[in-house]
Amino acid sequence: MLTFEMMWERVLACDAAYDGQFYTAVKTTKIYCRPSCRSRKPKRENVEFYKTRQEAETSGYRACKRCQPDIARSPSSALVHDVTTFLLEAYMRPLKLDDIAAHVNMSPFYVERTFTETTGETPRQRLERIRIDQAAYLLKTTDWKNEKVGAAVGLSTPSNFYRVFKRWKGASPNAYRKERDDATE
Protein backbone atom coordinates (compact mmCIF):
# COMPACT_ATOMS: atom_id res chain seq x y z
CA MET A 1 0.00 0.00 0.00
CA LEU A 2 2.86 2.42 0.74
CA THR A 3 4.85 3.42 -2.33
CA PHE A 4 8.61 3.88 -2.41
CA GLU A 5 8.14 7.67 -2.42
CA MET A 6 5.82 7.60 0.58
CA MET A 7 8.20 5.41 2.56
CA TRP A 8 11.16 7.61 1.59
CA GLU A 9 9.31 10.72 2.84
CA ARG A 10 8.58 8.98 6.16
CA VAL A 11 12.28 8.03 6.51
CA LEU A 12 13.39 11.60 5.83
CA ALA A 13 10.91 12.80 8.46
CA CYS A 14 12.13 10.15 10.98
CA ASP A 15 8.46 9.29 11.51
CA ALA A 16 8.10 6.82 14.39
CA ALA A 17 4.44 6.31 13.49
CA TYR A 18 5.60 4.01 10.69
CA ASP A 19 8.02 1.92 12.78
CA GLY A 20 7.26 -1.74 12.20
CA GLN A 21 5.32 -1.01 9.01
CA PHE A 22 8.46 -1.27 6.91
CA TYR A 23 12.25 -1.32 7.24
CA THR A 24 14.83 0.75 5.38
CA ALA A 25 17.88 -1.11 4.08
CA VAL A 26 21.01 0.61 2.80
CA LYS A 27 22.75 -1.28 0.01
CA THR A 28 26.20 0.25 0.61
CA THR A 29 26.39 -0.50 4.35
CA LYS A 30 24.22 -3.67 4.38
CA ILE A 31 22.33 -2.30 7.42
CA TYR A 32 18.56 -2.04 7.92
CA CYS A 33 16.78 0.47 10.17
CA ARG A 34 13.41 1.60 11.45
CA PRO A 35 11.82 4.59 9.64
CA SER A 36 12.44 6.69 12.78
CA CYS A 37 16.21 6.05 12.91
CA ARG A 38 18.15 9.26 13.55
CA SER A 39 21.30 8.08 11.76
CA ARG A 40 22.53 10.04 8.75
CA LYS A 41 20.21 9.54 5.78
CA PRO A 42 21.60 7.51 2.86
CA LYS A 43 21.41 8.49 -0.77
CA ARG A 44 18.02 7.63 -2.21
CA GLU A 45 19.48 5.31 -4.85
CA ASN A 46 21.12 3.19 -2.13
CA VAL A 47 17.84 2.45 -0.33
CA GLU A 48 15.61 -0.62 -0.45
CA PHE A 49 12.48 -1.17 1.63
CA TYR A 50 11.33 -4.40 3.25
CA LYS A 51 8.02 -5.19 4.90
CA THR A 52 9.57 -7.34 7.64
CA ARG A 53 12.87 -7.65 9.50
CA GLN A 54 13.13 -11.24 8.32
CA GLU A 55 13.00 -10.17 4.65
CA ALA A 56 15.81 -7.68 5.24
CA GLU A 57 17.94 -10.24 7.09
CA THR A 58 17.31 -12.89 4.44
CA SER A 59 18.55 -10.41 1.84
CA GLY A 60 21.85 -10.07 3.73
CA TYR A 61 21.28 -6.97 5.87
CA ARG A 62 22.11 -6.66 9.58
CA ALA A 63 20.26 -4.60 12.19
CA CYS A 64 21.30 -1.01 12.89
CA LYS A 65 23.01 -0.62 16.25
CA ARG A 66 21.49 2.81 16.78
CA CYS A 67 17.75 2.18 16.31
CA GLN A 68 17.91 -1.58 17.05
CA PRO A 69 15.06 -2.78 14.84
CA ASP A 70 15.71 -6.39 15.94
CA ILE A 71 14.85 -5.78 19.62
CA ALA A 72 11.57 -7.37 20.70
CA ARG A 73 8.68 -5.01 21.28
CA SER A 74 6.77 -4.49 24.50
CA PRO A 75 3.06 -5.42 24.64
CA SER A 76 2.08 -1.76 24.32
CA SER A 77 4.28 -1.23 21.27
CA ALA A 78 2.81 -4.42 19.78
CA LEU A 79 -0.66 -2.91 20.24
CA VAL A 80 0.50 0.33 18.59
CA HIS A 81 1.92 -1.69 15.68
CA ASP A 82 -1.31 -3.67 15.25
CA VAL A 83 -3.50 -0.56 15.42
CA THR A 84 -1.27 1.38 13.01
CA THR A 85 -1.21 -1.54 10.57
CA PHE A 86 -5.01 -1.67 10.66
CA LEU A 87 -5.27 2.10 10.15
CA LEU A 88 -2.90 1.96 7.16
CA GLU A 89 -5.04 -0.76 5.58
CA ALA A 90 -8.43 0.81 6.33
CA TYR A 91 -7.85 4.59 6.39
CA MET A 92 -10.13 5.20 3.40
CA ARG A 93 -13.18 3.82 5.26
CA PRO A 94 -15.14 5.56 8.00
CA LEU A 95 -13.65 4.22 11.25
CA LYS A 96 -14.66 4.50 14.88
CA LEU A 97 -12.68 3.57 17.96
CA ASP A 98 -14.98 0.55 18.36
CA ASP A 99 -13.89 -0.72 14.91
CA ILE A 100 -10.23 -0.38 15.84
CA ALA A 101 -10.74 -2.06 19.21
CA ALA A 102 -12.69 -4.92 17.63
CA HIS A 103 -9.85 -5.49 15.17
CA VAL A 104 -7.31 -5.97 17.99
CA ASN A 105 -9.83 -7.76 20.28
CA MET A 106 -9.54 -5.28 23.15
CA SER A 107 -11.79 -2.75 24.81
CA PRO A 108 -12.00 0.71 23.23
CA PHE A 109 -10.98 2.33 26.53
CA TYR A 110 -7.86 0.16 26.84
CA VAL A 111 -6.87 0.68 23.19
CA GLU A 112 -7.18 4.46 23.41
CA ARG A 113 -5.44 4.75 26.79
CA THR A 114 -2.52 2.45 25.89
CA PHE A 115 -2.09 3.89 22.40
CA THR A 116 -2.10 7.46 23.72
CA GLU A 117 0.31 6.71 26.57
CA THR A 118 2.72 4.96 24.19
CA THR A 119 2.62 7.37 21.22
CA GLY A 120 1.45 10.69 22.61
CA GLU A 121 -1.44 10.76 20.14
CA THR A 122 -4.86 9.15 20.06
CA PRO A 123 -5.81 6.54 17.47
CA ARG A 124 -8.03 9.20 15.84
CA GLN A 125 -5.04 11.56 15.53
CA ARG A 126 -2.92 8.77 14.03
CA LEU A 127 -5.72 8.01 11.55
CA GLU A 128 -5.92 11.68 10.58
CA ARG A 129 -2.15 11.85 10.12
CA ILE A 130 -2.17 8.75 7.89
CA ARG A 131 -5.02 10.23 5.84
CA ILE A 132 -3.28 13.57 5.46
CA ASP A 133 0.05 11.93 4.54
CA GLN A 134 -1.81 10.01 1.82
CA ALA A 135 -3.64 13.16 0.70
CA ALA A 136 -0.37 15.12 0.51
CA TYR A 137 1.10 12.34 -1.62
CA LEU A 138 -1.91 12.42 -3.95
CA LEU A 139 -1.77 16.20 -4.21
CA LYS A 140 1.90 15.97 -5.20
CA THR A 141 1.52 13.15 -7.71
CA THR A 142 -1.91 13.59 -9.31
CA ASP A 143 -4.05 16.33 -10.80
CA TRP A 144 -7.16 15.15 -8.97
CA LYS A 145 -9.55 17.75 -7.63
CA ASN A 146 -9.36 18.33 -3.88
CA GLU A 147 -12.76 16.72 -3.31
CA LYS A 148 -11.60 13.52 -5.03
CA VAL A 149 -8.40 13.47 -2.96
CA GLY A 150 -10.41 13.96 0.24
CA ALA A 151 -12.81 11.16 -0.67
CA ALA A 152 -9.92 8.84 -1.63
CA VAL A 153 -8.39 9.18 1.84
CA GLY A 154 -11.63 8.81 3.79
CA LEU A 155 -12.43 12.50 4.36
CA SER A 156 -15.55 12.65 2.22
CA THR A 157 -16.87 16.10 3.13
CA PRO A 158 -14.82 18.89 1.54
CA SER A 159 -15.06 21.18 4.57
CA ASN A 160 -13.69 18.46 6.87
CA PHE A 161 -10.89 17.64 4.40
CA TYR A 162 -9.83 21.30 4.14
CA ARG A 163 -9.96 21.80 7.93
CA VAL A 164 -8.01 18.65 8.80
CA PHE A 165 -5.46 19.17 6.00
CA LYS A 166 -4.75 22.75 7.09
CA ARG A 167 -4.37 21.70 10.73
CA TRP A 168 -1.77 19.02 9.87
CA LYS A 169 0.11 20.66 6.99
CA GLY A 170 -0.27 24.34 7.87
CA ALA A 171 -1.65 25.15 4.42
CA SER A 172 -4.80 24.54 2.44
CA PRO A 173 -4.72 21.74 -0.15
CA ASN A 174 -4.60 24.37 -2.93
CA ALA A 175 -1.66 26.20 -1.34
CA TYR A 176 0.12 22.88 -0.75
CA ARG A 177 -0.35 21.90 -4.41
CA LYS A 178 0.82 25.36 -5.53
CA GLU A 179 4.04 24.92 -3.50
CA ARG A 180 4.57 21.63 -5.34
CA ASP A 181 3.96 23.27 -8.72
CA ASP A 182 6.31 26.18 -7.88
CA ALA A 183 9.04 23.73 -6.81
CA THR A 184 8.88 21.82 -10.10
CA GLU A 185 9.12 24.91 -12.33
UniProtKB/TrEMBL annotation:
Gene3D superfamilies: DNA Methylphosphotriester Repair Domain (3.40.10.10), Homeodomain-like (1.10.10.60). Its cofactor is Zn(2+). SMART domains: HTH_ARAC. The keyword Metal-binding does not apply. Keywords: Activator, DNA-binding, Methyltransferase, Transcription, Transcription regulation, Transferase. Residues 81-179 form the HTH araC/xylS-type domain. Pfam families: Ada_Zn_binding, HTH_18. InterPro entries: Ada-like_dom_sf (IPR035451), Ada_DNA_repair_Zn-bd (IPR004026), Homeodomain-like_sf (IPR009057), HTH_AraC (IPR018060), Me-P-triester_DNA_alkyl-Trfase (IPR016220). PANTHER family: ARAC-FAMILY TRANSCRIPTIONAL REGULATOR, HTH-TYPE TRANSCRIPTIONAL REGULATOR EXSA. This is AraC family transcriptional regulator. It comes from Exiguobacterium alkaliphilum. The lineage of its organism: Bacteria, Bacillati, Bacillota, Bacilli, Bacillales.
